[in-house]
Design brief:
13 strands, single chain, globular, 4-stranded antiparallel beta sheet, 441 residues, 3-stranded antiparallel beta sheet, alpha+beta, disordered N terminus
Length: 441
């Protein structure tokens, strides 16, 4: 592949554009020809970097290091656009830098000139992924029995007229709405796949560092809907199956299984969810209601020059996640380590992670992201949260075992440091006091 050589002036333009793009500074309202030239000439290299660097913030030092990775000198000392090296190479270079693999970075670069830009061993930074707190709140919602003699309005009574009309058109009865409540009908495979979508959303979003930008965690592009932006990105079955298996070998049967789960979440009417949450901005509050599957997809095959890409690995989906996954993510979010799927499988001792474990993890991750490192939770409410169906069926002993296993897993993934049992002062109920690792990453 021919490499693009840059003149001194072009090199300066590239550097300026890289700094501008990485900091998320928009073009001026009336850009000059020079402005347009700078942005145009740098777009390819900047897009390549944007695609692979998952940072919550970028410091000036990190911008400088990225710049030096993006413009590696060749043997003659001339500068070249990193994009000409190919996206896989750039991905490995940047991953190696951020994971402190100094030897691997130097080997991949094949260039002693960048050694001085490798991060010092005593500096640490790992990648985090984010999801909107509205989705986590929704996925943790449960129906807790309330003992009162006062008549309470049903869920149906509380819904907005347009939502009721949509439910009627979908053939959903009033009885079903009130019986199911706002709980989310997911199996453990769905939770596992949603974890994969968290990772892919972080990796494929064009912007995961500038919170003020409207495309923050917006995927490759965002689709506007009446209730908010829906993040969209293309995936092939192989890449999502690779995450689903925790990085292990992907067989054809696994890809078929993953395809079935994806299509179940998108197309199965039984998997439709009643979304109901409140978006707050200062004193303004907006109630959001929707009844839909959590993702939408279009089955596609990717082509280049009329040739299908990657043969059997080319089949994939253009996924649109429900807007709730990124709604107000800049101010209300829950963070997870980038390798959360691998950790869950390893800590559980197998790929079939129980639903109760996912729910306890999400509940505590929500506290952690709110900087509440010692949450106190009444046992009865916690048990309904992680295993509502079993509690309704009065299988408390079964739930206690689920809880113990979930705690063990959450300790192994580094979230829980310790947990104590005490009694609530006012009610005398059993209460758990969790001690979370502040530096969970």
């Amino acid at each position: 592949m021919a490499r693009t050589k840059l003149s001194k002036n072009e090199f300066i333009d590239h550097k300026a554009a890289l700094l501008i793009l990485l900091r998320g500074i928009p073009l001026p309202e009336a850009p000059t020809e020079v402005d347009l030239k700078v942005y145009g000439i740098m777009q390819k290299a900047a897009d390549t970097i944007d695609k692979y660097v998952s940072l919550l913030e970028i410091t000036k030092d990190e911008v400088g290091i990225l710049y030096n990775i993006a413009f590696i000198k060749d043997e003659e000392g001339k500068h070249e656009v990193a994009g000409s090296l190919g996206e896989p190479v750039i991905a490995q270079l940047i991953d190696a830098y951020f994971f402190k693999k100094k030897d691997e970075l130097v080997r991949l670069a094949g260039n002693a000139a960048i050694k001085k830009y490798v991060i010092r061993p005593d500096e640490t930074k790992t990648r985090q992924i984010k999801v909107s707190g509205h989705w986590i709140d929704k996925s943790l919602r449960y129906n807790y029995p309330v003992k009162t003699s006062v008549s309470q309005p049903t869920l149906w009574d509380q819904l907005l007229p347009p939502t009721k009309n949509k439910l009627v058109q979908e053939g959903v009865s009033v009885e079903m709405v009130n019986r199911k409540g706002e709980s989310t009908p997911l199996e453990y495979t769905h939770y596992k796949l949603i974890d994969c979508l968290y990772v892919l959303l972080s990796e494929k979003s064009r912007n995961v560092y500038n919170k003020q930008s409207p495309d923050y965690y917006g995927g490759e592009e965002a689709m506007q809907t009446p209730i908010g932006n829906s993040p969209m990105f293309w995936i092939n079955l192989y890449e999502i199956a690779k995450i689903y298996t925790g990085g292990k070998r992907v067989a054809g049967t696994i890809m078929e299984t993953v395809a079935g789960i994806v299509e179940d979440l998108a197309d199965n009417p039984e998997m439709k969810v009643l979304f109901r949450y409140q978006r707050s901005r200062g004193e303004d509050k907006v109630v959001i209601e929707d009844y839909a599957n959590i993702i939408k997809l279009l089955n596609v095959r990717k082509y280049k020059n009329n040739a299908e890409i990657d043969n059997e690995k080319g089949k994939g989906y253009f996924i649109a996640m429900h807007p709730i996954f990124i709604d107000q993510i800049a101010t209300k979010w829950v963070s997870y380590p980038h390798d959360i799927t691998d950790r869950m499988i390893d800590a559980n001792g197998g790929s079939k992670v129980p639903i109760a474990t996912y729910k306890l993890r999400d509940l505590l991750a929500r506290y952690h992201s709110s900087k509440e490192y010692n949450p106190k939770i009444i046992q009865d409410k916690l048990f309904y949260c992680i295993a509502e169906k079993s509690m309704i069926n009065k299988r408390r002993g079964e739930v206690e075992k689920m809880y113990e296993r979930a705690v063990e897993t959450c300790i192994k993934i580094g979230l829980i440091k310790d947990v104590h049992v005490t009694m609530a002062k006012t009610s005398g109920e059993i209460m758990y006091v969790f001690e979370l690792h502040k530096e969970w990453e």
